[in-house]
Amino acid sequence: MTLEASEIIASAGGARTARAKPSAVKRWWALAALLLLVGCREVRVKTLAQGTITAPGGNQIEVVRDPADLAKLGIRAPVHFRGEFGVILMMGPHARTGYKQIIESIRANDQRVRVVAFEQEPADGGEPSTSYRTYTLWIVPNSVYRRGVRVEVVTPSDEPIATTYLP
Known about the structure:
Elements: H1 5-12, H2 22-39, E1 46-53, E2 60-64, H3 67-72, E3 84-96, E4 100-108, E5 112-120, E6 128-141, E7 150-154, E8 160-165
Parallel strand pairs: 5-7
Antiparallel strand pairs: 1-6, 2-3, 3-6, 4-5, 7-8
């Protein structure tokens, strides 16, 4: 709905006010909501896989940008590297079976991504095994990739686990 120019001028001068019809108000609110949603795009980060790998090392975060980097770690996942990249949190090593990662939260802003995570020990104590690490793989759209952004993982009690920067 549009107001006539004379109504707008008259209402601006205080001589009289024009009321919009309820249907027009609903349309304006819908338009305002749409503009807000467009301005505040939500980034969809998918947790694609969790599991174990036998790659040596300790707690670390790895950013993978191509299939070769993913294959070196022994992880198979359908990552579409043309439009997305992977972030892998690896924790361990462990000599007993049954450990798994629990991700409590992921928060991001322009300078940093903060992940709160921990490993849950097996309830039964686990069985002896060869050394392994647990991992969680996230798939992130390339549109949010910003060189130099700090990625940090901490425990729920705010103890550091691993930190890296997007290369």
